[in-house]
Each structure stands twice: as C-alpha cells, then as structure tokens.
Structures
1.
Amino acid sequence: MQQDRQRKIRELFDEYIEMYAARDERLTERFSHNFSGYAGSGAALIQSRDEWIKITRRDFSQVPGRIRIEMLDLSLQELCDDVVMATAFFHIHLPSGGHLLSREVARLVLVFRLEAGEWMIVHSGISVPYHSAQADEIYPLQSLQEENSTLQALVDERTEALQESQAHYRLLMEDARDVLWRADPRLNIIYISPADERLRGFRADEVVGRHVFDMFTDEGIALVKGLLKHKALTGDPSEKDEFLTFEVEHRCKDGRLIWGEVTSKLDLDAQGKIIGYHGITREITERKALEEQVRQLAFYDPLTHLANRRLLVEHLDQAMSASKRSHRRGALVFLDLDNFKTLNDTHGHAVGDLLLVDVAKRLRACVREADTVARFGGDEFVVLLSELGTQADEAAAQTAAVAEKIRVHLAEPYLLQAATVDPQATAIEHRCTASIGVALFDGHEKSRGDVVDAADAAMYKAKEDGRNRIGFAPCPVAAA
Ligand SMILES: Nc1nc2c(ncn2[C@@H]2O[C@H](COP(=O)(O)OP(=O)(O)OP(=O)(O)O)[C@@H](O)[C@H]2O)c(=O)[nH]1
C-alpha cells in the first residue's frame, strides 16, 4: 500500500516536472485550494493558489520554449498517511542551446496531500541559486536567457573568428615557403612546419625530437656554435629579445646541400629564463649562387679563374698587415710570359688562351693553398707568398726556391689542344718560359705600391737580362 502511494506520488511529481518543463498551463490544476509556497529563490511566501497560478503564468510567459530538467536526485518522505513530501535536486537547462541556467543545483520541494481522494499540491518551495528574487520577480529566466544568448552569440562569433584566423594561420604555416620551427632550450626541435618537407625532404616526424644541428653541415655547426658562444659572451641581457640571423648550409634527405637564412629568437619566461627558441628558415641557395657569380666576376679572372688584380691587392694589404704583426715576411712574385705574342700570332688567340689556362694550373700547383695566385692582365701573373721566415735571408731563400720551382715548371712543354671540328687535329706542342721578379716585404714598407713596383721592376730586369730567369728587388724595397 505504502509502495503504491509512493509510486503514485512519484508519477505525479514526474508529471509536474514534465508540465513545468513543457511550460504547460495545465500544471496549475494540480494546486490545492489551501495552497502555500515560496516563489523564486524562496524569498516570498505565496499564500493562495490563485496567486501561485498568476506567478507561474508569468514565469511561463517569460520563457515560452521548453526547458530541460536534469534530475539529479528525488526523495519522498511520508509525513503522515495523507501527506507526502517530495524533494528533488536538479539542473535547469535553458531552451536555447541547452545551456545551464545556473551551474549550482536547484531544489524543489512539493508537499502532496490527499484531498477528496486526489493528491493535490499544498506547498511548494523552490530554490534556484542564481540570485535572490526581487519583489515582483519570479524566475528571471528571460533576462538570463537573453543574457545567455547574447553571450552565446558573442562566443559563437569569437569562435568563428578564432577558427577562421586559426585556419588562416595554419594555411600560412603550411603553405609558406619559409620553414617555421620551434626548439626547446637544448635546441631540440619541437615543431617544424610542412615547408621543411618540401624543401629538404624530411617529414616533420623525422625532424621533431632531433637536435637543430642535425640539419646543418659540420661547417654550419661550427659557425652557429661560434655565433651562440659570441652572443653568450658579449650579448647584453637586454638584447635577449633580438633576432639572430645567419646563413648556413642545410642537409637534404637526398644528400643535397641547400643554403638557408635562419632568423631565430629566444623564448623567455616571465623571469627572463630561456625556455626555447623559435625562428624562420628561408631558402637562399639561388641567392648564394648569384652572390658567388658576382664575387667571381668582381674578384676572379674569367679565363683562368685565378684571383684578379683587385683581389690580389686586397690580399697583399692583408698580408702586409699580418707581416707587420707577426714579423714573418712575405713575397710578391711577378711573372710575365716570354714571347707569348708569337704563340698568339702563329696559332691564334684561342690557343694563346689555352696556354694561359695551363700556366694558371701550373702556378697553383707550385704554391700552398694559402698563397694567392693572380692574373694581373695579359700574360702577367702574380704570386703572393705569406708567412715566410722572420729573417730577410731566410725569406729570400724560401722565395727563391718557390720562384725557381715556378720557372722550371712553366718552362716544361705545353700540349695545347684547340677546340676544332677536325677530329684529326693534333695538339700543338709549345715551349714557353717566364721572366720572374721578386720583392720581399715585412709590412714596414711605405705603401703597397712600392712592393708592387719593386717586383715589377725586378721582373723587367730579368726580361732585359735575357728572359727565363729570376730577378730580386733590393731588400728592403726602395720607396718610389
Ligand atoms: N690569347 C690571349 N692573349 C692575350 C690576352 N691578353 C693579352 N694577350 C696578348 O699577350 C701578349 C702580351 O705580349 P707582351 O707581354 O707584350 O709580349 P711578349 O710577346 O710576351 O714578349 P715579352 O713579354 O717581351 O717576352 C699580346 O700579344 C696580347 O695581345 C688574352 O687574354 N688571351
């Protein structure tokens, strides 16, 4: 019997809740004539059924749509045979978008009493903890709902804008030709954009987790280490947010090397501690090739690829300054081919060119990598020897040995194969010597010009003395 009653009350309660949620006018029929209750947050006690009906209608008109009641708990308490108290805890979801009216739990207490064989509601108390009801206010659902939908519209608008900007950003990151990357404080890559795969062929998962240096050549690693060390030693702490830009060769998956210009910056936390690095790498292989071409045109002889007069002069200035500091002497060796004109006149300019190219090769083979071999113009060549002995005779002896080696090598026969359509054409054998003039320097000379003039004069003297010989300028060289 008790169970039946409880089931009945539960059904009535569910029905009440359903009608309340559906904003169903018939709900009012359930109230007893001897009704009392608390409206809104429980602030105002309603003494009559009619007043409660009025209030409920106002509440319903505020929010016409169906609301959703999310029941969390319902308990029934039998106060006596014909009085049962039902207490429920629940969340109220607003009609638009199912948003919660309040994050806190609402409580509804309904007291049912058997009146003439029917269970009627004699008391109702509701507590919805959004705020206390004002004097003439029941559930300020409408204003909350409006507020909520305004906020929701704003959230939707912002979300859309954010998604759009994220999509743009992603597009930029993914479509950009430049590689964007981030690294942790130990320089291990933690993010790399897809441009790297297009550029170097490595998938992002093959790069993430690897050290930044894995991308570079050994020379590149040395360069970057040097830069970082220099920055750490000399860097002003206030310059921590400055960009560091450098050019470095990068390894590709297929073994190619490409040039990249890296612009990187530190990531700092609020205390200024380094928490990582980020940057952009731009491929500059073409630009480097162009720069190299320009350098070649500006500083190298196009026929022999030896240094030209301009580069030789630069190197001579450097060698003279170094000599002054280190006290190690240097020498300028001037050469002019003997009777070169005859070859040109007999076999043509093209064959003459072949000889000049061959001479250049032989000269290079006679000296160390650090020495400069230049073509001064026509059939004139210059060799700059540096880091010789500190004593004049020692330096003179070293230079004489190199000059003699050059003289002997250049005097060996040349086989000049001119480019011709005739497959039978045989190579031209030619003999050619050079007259050589040497001037030693120790950096204390009045000018670079004095050294050049002295070597030139010594070469002319050698020519006058019968060619294929070496002449030494007086030491120290005489001022012009
Ligand atoms: N094939 C070729 N010849 C050049 C080039 N530049 C200059 N010459 C020629 O080199 C020759 C230089 O001649 P000289 O040094 O004056 O005379 P030489 O015949 O070498 O005689 P000596 O120097 O007195 O032994 C000239 O015939 C120039 O036309 C070049 O780029 N290619």
2.
Amino acid sequence: MPLKQMKLHRLKMRLNNPFTTSFGSVQEKEFFISEVIDGDGNRGFGESVAFASPWYTEETVETSLHVIENFLIKILQENDIQYPDDVTQLFSSVKRNNMAKATLEGAIWDLYAKRENIPLSKAIGGMKQEIDVGISIGIQPTIKDLLKTIEHYVQEGYKRMKIKIKPGHDVNVLREVRKHFPNTPIMADANSAYTLEDAEHLKQLDNLGLMMIEQPLKDDEILDHAKLQEELNTPICLDESIHSLTDAKMAIQLGACKIINIKIGRVGGITEAKRIHDYCRKHDIPVWCGGMLEAGVGRAHNIALTTLSQFVMPGDTAGSSHYWEQDIIQPEVSVKNGVIKVPDQPGIGYEVDEEALKKFTVDLKTYDL
Ligand SMILES: O=C(O)CCC(=O)c1ccccc1C(=O)O
Ligand SMILES: [Mg+2]
C-alpha cells in the first residue's frame, strides 16, 4: 500500500453525562483521530481509546502520542505494508502500548478496505448485516436513578443491560434491579474492584440470573480468576486481563473465564482482535465487543469487528446520541430495537464530518510516510 502521510487530529469532546466506574468518572474526553492518506487520495481513519489517566490500563493520551510519534511512525516510514496484518508484526518490536498501535492500525485497515472498495466488515471476514447491542450503565447516584435509567434503555430496546458495580454497591443493587426487571438480560462489570477474598460475597450473585460478571479481579490475576470461577456459577467474562491472543489462551486453558470481551484498542488492533476471535470460536468461547466511550470512528470499527461470527452476545456499542450531543461521523450510529444495521459503503462505511472534526480539534500533527 503506497502510504503517503499520517495525520493525528487531537480532539476534545464532552460526554453528555459523566461515566462512573469503580475507579472514578470520565466526562471530558481527549483522544486522537488518525488519518492515513495514500498516493491516490484515499483516506483511512482510526481512533485512539486511551484515557487521560491510566485507570483502565497503563496507557494514557500522552503515552499514546509519545509512542506513536517516536516509534510507530518510524516503523511505517521504514517499511512497506502489503496487507494490514503486516502492521501487527512490524509493531511487535515495540512492547505493549496496544492502544497506541491500534490507533494507527485501524486507520490502515480502513484505508485498505477503501482501496479494495469493500466495507471494512467484509475486509476482515464478517458476514452479519445487522448486529445486536446492549448498553453499559455507569454507577448512578441512587438506586432509584439506576432503575429509571434501566427502564429507559429497556424501552429503547437495548438487548442487555450492563451494570457497573463496586464493593458496597453490588449484591444489594443487583437484587433490587432483578426484582424490578425479572426477565431482562443483565450483567455486572466490576472493573477489577475485588480480590479473591470476596469470593463468598460474590457467590450471592449466583441466584440473580446474571449473564456474566465482567472483570471482578485485577488484570494480572488470571490464576485468581480461575479460582473464583471454580466457586461461582455465574460465568466470568474477562476485559482488562486480555491484552493479546496469548492472554486469551492462558485464561481459557486455566478456566479463568467462560466469555471474553474483545476491545480493539486493548489488544493492539483489528488483526489481534480477529486472532482472539478465531481462537475463541475454535474453543466455543462466546465473545462480544466492548466499548471505550468512543466517538464515531471508533464506534464504526467496533461495528465492523462485531460482524465476525463468534460475536454471539450483544456488545457495548450503543448509539452515538447516548454519548454525544454531536458525533464526528455522518450518519451517526443509530440503534433501533437494540440492532445496528451494518453499513455497506467502503471502509468504515460512515463519512467523517469534516466540520465536526474541525470543531472538536485542539491540535493537528502531520507525518510524511
Ligand atoms: O459504552 C461503552 O463504550 C463502554 C462502557 C464501559 O463499560 C467502559 C468504558 C470505559 C472503560 C472501560 C469500560 C469497560 O467496559 O469496562
Ligand atoms: Mg469492562
């Protein structure tokens, strides 16, 4: 692929509502839109997902920029890319920093699909024309607020409700939720807030009919997750623990989880996400696509990934308007009855709205490739 230039648009956008997890709240979001341009004037887009502080993984907006500018761009300048999969191999000389890598790799995948004149979903081997999505609900000020919020999203048709939990705000809350919504598919996400010593307490979740509990323990506690899964009937789903196919293999073979949440940024790009997907498919492990409060470009990548066959559970890719007053793509991502229609235009299948992009841009850097 004749890559000519990479642009890094730094955007600042404000979420409609603060999003609260066991680790704190996010409302202002700074991130990068990567734009790779070829010799024929095609443009591919990617989006970075690291937050301002390293609460989710060790990466931040600033570490992403540091790694992209000083290492990853050089690799693209010094090597020819035949196929997007090459990028993962080339970037492997840089350890971890997966979100930085995925920022550039995603743009190259979009460019590749546009050059081939096919949707990104087809370029990666996806077959679905529609995908099912659920919604992730942050910690609310009161149980009453939470119940009202859930009611709203049940009415909108989202396919499952993900409720954030933390110590002191878990079994009690979920019991109440289950009482009001006896038949709604519900899951919980702890974002690493517990230790194995909480096993007895977490066992109380077993009679609430949850689809799964996501990431109860620390990201590197794969062994402890295996011990916890032995105690729990509720399936464990891993999020923060899975940075690579190697992590996924270890987690599955040790019995640390029964379900995996795949996030493109966390695993270093679409190619690695596909490899994890393929392994899970072979081993009958259901997967679903997680979210990082993305703007439209990242959302479009998640939609394409979710068209792969082993994404058998609703993901976190809610509609644009749930997050943003104005998104940066046209049309915005819309969800009807918990379903997104997969776009059939080339590449990510949504147009980047140049005016919106400009409006939210606080810095722009250009690198010749
Ligand atoms: O709606 C979304 O994009 C996902 C929301 C979410 O749960 C989340 C948001 C930011 C960081 C981590 C997580 C998570 O899945 O743990
Ligand atoms: Mg999670």
3.
Amino acid sequence: MLSTGRAVTSPACAAQRRFMGAAPRTVVFLAGDHGKRAAASVAARAAGPSHPGVCLEAAAPWSMEDVAAPVTVSYEESVRQVVLKQAALAASTTPRKARLSRRDAGVLDEAFDRCGAVCKEYAKTFYLATQLMTPERRRAIWAIYVWCRRTDELVDGPNAAHTSALALDRWESRLDGVFAGRPYDMLDAALADAVAAFPAVDERPFRDMVQGMRMDLAKSRYATFDELYLYCYRVAGTVGLMTVPVMGVSPGSQAGVETVYAGALALGVANQLTNILRDVGEDARRGRIYLPQDELATAGISEADIFAGRVTVEWRSFMKGQIARARAYFQQAEQGAAELNQESRWPVWASLLLYRQILDEIEANGYDNFSKRAYVPKAKKLAALPKAYLRSLMPPPSSQRRR
Ligand SMILES: CC(C)=CCC/C(C)=C/CC/C(C)=C/CC/C(C)=C/COP(=O)(O)OP(=O)(O)O
C-alpha cells in the first residue's frame, strides 16, 4: 500500500539523473526509524514542492504518521526497505506451479549437474563447502549461482561488448519465464525448479541484479557512497537475498529473520566493495572508477592520479578508510552468518573469510592496487576451509542469550 502524500526528489536522485539521464526518481520515506524520519523530514521541507513523475522504489506498509510526512530517503534506506520486505516473505509457502513433472526428473538432474559443474569450475571453495547442505538446497544454490554468473557475463563476459539494454530486457523477460514456470533452457529450468521448491525466493532481487547490470552499461562514475551502495546492493547484495531463503535460518535462532537478511545483504556489499578495492587499477584501465567521487575529492585525489596509478600518502590514507568500511560490512555479515541453518553455514563462512583476506593482501601490497593484484595464496585459501568449518559448528549467538 502506498501513500498519496507529498514526495520529493532526493539529491541522490538528482545525481543519478546527471549520470544516467534517467527519468526523475523519487523515493518516499517508509514506516519505522523515527530519528531518521525526523532528519529526513527537515531535508524534505528544505527540498521544496513535490515532483511530478513519482516513482516509488521501496514499498512497505504505511502508518498514518508516515502519510502525514512522507519524505525522501537515501538509496541505503530504500534498500533497507527491500530487505525488510524480503525478510517478511521468509515464511512464504505459497506453492509455485513451476515444478516440472516426474517425467522431466532426468532432464532436471542433468541440468542441476551442469549447474554444479559451473559452480565447481568458477567457485571451487564455495562449491566444496556446499557439499554439507541437503541435496535440494545445494542444487538450488548452484542454480542461483549459475543464473548470477550468466547475468554477470552479459556485461563482463567475452561478448559483453555486444550487450545492449535490449539484451538485458530480453534476459529479464526470460527471468519472468523462470518465475512463471516457463523456463527457456535447461539451466533456466533448474532455476525454475529451485524457486518452486523454495517459494520464499522472490523475483525482486533477481530483477534488481539485472538493474545493476544496466547501471554498469550506463555508468562509469559514482558521485557518492550512497550511489555506490545502490550498485553494490544490486550486483552483489541481491545474491544474499536470493540465497538466504534456500539456506534457511537456524531453528534455534532468536535473532529475527531481518538480522539474517541484513547480514546476507552486508556480505554481498562487503564482497563487492572488496572486489572494487582490489580491482581499482584494472577498472581504471577500462576507464571506470568505482569509488565515491566526493570522497576522492575530499582526500585530494584526482582522476588523473588514479589513471596514473599514483600511490601517494593521500591514496594510502584514502584506502585505509575504504578498507575499514568494507570490514565493517563483513562484521555485520558475521552476525547474520552465525544465525543460518548449521549445514548452510560452512560455505558462507568460507566465502566470508576468504574474501575478507583480500583486504589484508591489499594492505600487504602497501595499498598499491594499481599495479599489483591482491590475491589470497592457495595455502591461505585452504587454511580458511577448516577455520570456516569450525565457525559453522558454533551455535547461533542469539540461541545462547538468556531470555
Ligand atoms: C551472511 C548470510 C546471512 C548469508 C550469506 C548470503 C550470501 C551467500 C552472500 C554472498 C554474496 C556474494 C557471494 C556476492 C557476490 C560478490 C562478489 C564480489 C563476487 C565476485 O565474483 P567474481 O567476479 O567471480 O570474483 P573474482 O573476481 O574474485 O573471481
């Protein structure tokens, strides 16, 4: 249910339009979080009259209070609303018609085997750690992984130069087919079967990921961290929202499903920020800078510095701040990971511990991420597996709390 109240265009929206030439985007403030609402309300009054062409990106139940003072919010807040909505779907058991008949079981087995093979090839450690999960969960995770990989390849793969907005539109229609039980090919059929088996898996994060690919086609600069956050949510945080309903929350958890979803989002954001920090040089050679421009300016770093790969005092200090922020997201992810179903925790801890180590390697390289690629040596990667396994055996902290 959406309000009919006054809404205003956010500064972040204006920045986005500057970069993307997009239609005016307005986000209205939604239920909860009184402190932020008060602050946002002041911002809204300052922003002036409402804007035509309102587009609501976040939808959640309204209270009368919210109707009285709907105001603009940051992308971070609108993503938070998406997460809350996804968490509310966690208990969803409405069956989907997408399951193929028993006759097709052989075809599906083959499709899932293929998904497993792709996962094994590109994400070995993660694949290995999925072996502890129940077969139904494991195959669903592989199918989701393969869909994400194929989506990413549209803008990052060998044929990326030929990917147009139209190709992404077609890919999105195929996605609708998956959720409607009309898969296009075998790999889509595997995903259709997975989302039928786990009805709490919603189409929204999948569509948002395609939006992330659209952003990549249209944009090569990010004005603020809020803009970058939206990008990180779309291309990586969405993976967390797609997979949590499959992985499941520990029956002993008292943490609330929102904590788990927020942790999953945080892991995606942390991984993506890490990926960005590792690849600054590589991205710059493609003319791309995935770092907040306002923060670069404050640090006294110009685009020319980045293109020339200058590892200055300013750069090191800037990188320290960026790394600290990525680590904070990893920390939030830990809280969610600990509350997952025990058999699903291992792959999550493995990916968290492994990816976080890249940040240590950037430090070890003296913050030179222009000419050196930070990578985790094989021995360290292997050592992370038993460490992750031990972590996965620990009961959810919330189950230990006294009630
Ligand atoms: C923490 C909780 C509660 C749940 C976990 C939910 C999950 C699985 C989140 C994972 C999110 C994730 C793996 C996002 C992808 C992020 C990312 C930057 C992937 C990079 O992929 P590649 O491009 O293949 O990486 P490399 O370039 O390092 O090979």
4.
Amino acid sequence: MKILIADDKAENRYLFEVLLKAYGYEVVSAANGVEALEMLRQDRVGLIISDIMMPVMDGFKLCRVCKQDERLKDIPFIFITAAYTSEKDEQFAMSLGADRFIRRPIESDDLIGIVKDVVAKQRAGHTPSLPAQEKEEASYLAEYAERVVSKLEQKVNDLEVEIAARKQAEQQLNQYTEEVEDLYNRAPCGYHSLDKDGVFVRINDTELSWLGYTREELVGKMNFADLITRDSLKAFQECFSHLKEHGSVLDIEFDMLRKDGTVLPVLMNASVVKDDNGDYLMCRATVYDITERKALQQELERQARTDSLTGISNRRYFMQRAEQELGRSRRFGHTLSMLMLDIDFFKAVNDNHGHAAGDMVLILLAKIACNAVRDVDVLGRIGGEEFAILLPETDTQMAAQVAERLRQEIETASVPIEQGPAIHFTISIGVATLRDDDAGIDALLKHADQALYEAKQTGRNRVCIANAGTHPMPAQATEGGACDE
Ligand SMILES: Nc1nc2c(ncn2[C@@H]2O[C@H](COP(=O)(O)OP(=O)(O)OP(=O)(O)O)[C@@H](O)[C@H]2O)c(=O)[nH]1
C-alpha cells in the first residue's frame, strides 16, 4: 500500500519514509498541500499523513479539499502536528473528516500502531463520522481563521519570548567577551598567538607594554623571531620546531629584544591549536617576565663565587677557574704559574688595631692585587689572610716579576686609621710553575705553598720560587728579599 506524507520539513519526511518503508509500505512525499494534491491526482494512494502548518497550502485545507473531492474523499487522513496541539485544534481537524489527530512527539511503535489501525478500519468499510464538506462554508471559514489566527498569535508570542531570550543571551555573551578581553589584556603575564610561520596573530596589552611596540606594528606584520636576541635565536627556532611537531613546549627560557634594543629575559609555555583536519592553525603562548628572577639568580651566583669581604673570587670558584685554566694550558701546551700570597704578622695587625682594621688591610691587598694582574689572570682569597693568583701563559721568570712588583706595591701601601699612624704591612709570596708530573691544581698549589713557607722561614716580605734549581731567580726579585725554595 502507498502512503502519502505531506510535511514541509525534509527531516520529518525522511524519518517517515524510513519508518514506513521498514514496515513494507510504499511512500511518496510532498512539501505542502498543493504538491500533495498533485500527487494524489496522479497516483493511487491508500493513506494520507499530513502536517498542519505548511506553506502554500496547509494541512487543514488539504484535508478539506480531499474530503470534497469524490476521488479522494475515501482515502483515510491522519493529522500529525507539533504546533496545533490544543483540544480546539483537534476538534477542528476531526470536523474536517480526518481519521486521527496525532500530537508530536510520538514513539515510532505508536505511530505504526495508529497507521495499521486506520488502514484496517478503512478496509473494514469504516468512514469518519462528520465530513467537513457537510459544514456551512461560512462556519468552516470562521473556524479555520480562528485556528490560524490563534496559531499565529501563539507563534508571535513564542517569537517574542525567543527574541527576549536571545537578547539576554547576547548581552551576557557581550559581557563575557568584554570580561575575557579584559582578563586577556591586563593579565600579569604576556599572551600571544602566532601563525605557522611565526607571525603575530594576536598579542595582549601586557606583552605589548613590555616590548614597547603597538599592536598595529606587530600583528600580521612581524615575526616573533624578529624579537629574539641573536644569542637566543637558535634555541628559539629549535623550540618552535619542537612545538609544531609535538604540540607543546614548557618552561623555555630565552631573551627577547624590546623595541628600544634592551633585553627582556622571559620564560614561555606554548601549545598548538589545530583546525578540524588536525592541521596546525596557530600556537598560543604564555610569557613571563623573569628579569627580577634572573637578576636574583645572577646575584646569588655572584655571591656564591665571591668572597664577601674583598669582592674577589672565593676559594671554591678560584679552584673551579683554576681547573679550567689547567685544562686549557695542557690542551694548548702553555705554561701556567701560581702565586701564593700571605700577609706577614697579620695576627699582630688584628691584635694591635682591631679586627676591623685587619679587614681593611685584607680589602686593600685584594684591591692592589686585582689592579696588578691582567684580565686573564685568576685572583682568589683561598684562606683567612691567604690569597692566590693563577697566571695563564706565564713562565716562572715572568711570574716572579709579577710577584715582586706586587710585593713592592704592598710594601709602600698603607691603611689609614682614625687614631694613630696608618698601618703598613708586607706580604710573602711563593711562586710555582706547572710541571709535567704535576697531577693537577692541588700539586701546583702545594708547590707554591712550599715556596711561600720558604719565604716566611727566610725572613718574610720576600718572593720565593719553587724548584728554583730548575728556574733561575729573576734579577728584580731582590729588594725585600728573595730566595730559592
Ligand atoms: N681581620 C681579619 N683577620 C683575619 C681574617 N681571617 C683570618 N684572620 C686572622 O689572620 C691571622 C693569621 O695569623 P697567623 O696564621 O698566626 O699568621 P700571621 O700572624 O700572619 O703570621 P705569619 O703568617 O707567620 O707571618 C689570625 O689572627 C686570624 O684571626 C679576616 O677575615 N679578617
């Protein structure tokens, strides 16, 4: 048996078709009453299932025309509607000669049950009780107009409610968008997004203010790589490739360049945003200004390397640098010499003038030694009143000359004190040069220390050279006293 479906919604027609075909019915469908009538006049149909609200010709009119047509009036007619759901709607529909009135939603099983029932009754010769054509035309039109107008009023009401709800949703959305924009722009960190080439797509106010650019100068114009220092560029490019390949990067540190050329150290986290096909769309990055942290870190590192009283390298850092220099001199076959310095009778300075005055002496010694050596030399305070100087690419003779010059400078220097004459002091110096059989820096230090001991033993205020038998004493190292170990 063939069933005609009249419904303006394609998805409804499709669902009916699938369902009814599954139960062995043939199905034809029309999008409105006029189309339905054309089909009914060309084809033999056993049942009409019609929506009510349709354009061109609605379901009420379709039913009335069918029931007035001799060839169509016996075809059973079922209304199915989601819009005309009141009792009056049903009464009016049934008054037109319909067999059934179904309100949506309805379960498939129930719908099929009704279809089977209506078909069975029709086969048994049953016809609807009150065909519409028996009603007066005027009363039909009045009722029809009432049904349509009440439906239109309801529709207008529904639309007004919907419009009000949409306006409210739009307002909320605008408010939310403003809030998100505000949070994005005023965040305490930088936010930016880059396209696949690294060009800015978006950037927040915070990061713009750090960098000193306007949004117009960056977005769509500049590549992020243009804002990276030369030293950080390689690391950044590797990080960007990793990001595109793996989808995210965490805690990457590098230096950015502000518009005024100054450096901005940053820490960055980034993740990739993909399109529906899974292809790279853009990356979003969060950037933190780590200037203060870097400065603090550098300060802590400096403090860890530095003797707090004199400001020169402490023993640990001196030994670290000395190991590096030893490696270099061995690699390039250069000579390497060491001076060990110790203040003579320093205990007496403390005892006679106080610890603070002793500190001033240590500070002055460090200052003079610092000025006396080259940039490549390594100066350190390795004990209370003991200092060491490592002299790269320096043989014994040159080292002894440096030591003697320093000894003389100290001999003529003095520390003024508030009461009494200024403090004069002297130093003893041991000199050693790295030998092939020296195992390391400790051996070199030991030899310099032995020479220093010798200088102390032989009268102080003098320079002594380790293994002087193999290294002749320089002529200059004589004034305050010089000796061979
Ligand atoms: N003011 C001051 N004194 C220090 C400091 N570190 C060590 N000293 C002192 O340095 C002195 C070293 O004395 P000694 O080892 O007896 O040697 P010395 O008196 O210099 O005698 P010689 O080395 O034999 O000439 C001690 O009195 C220490 O207290 C410091 O940071 N400040």
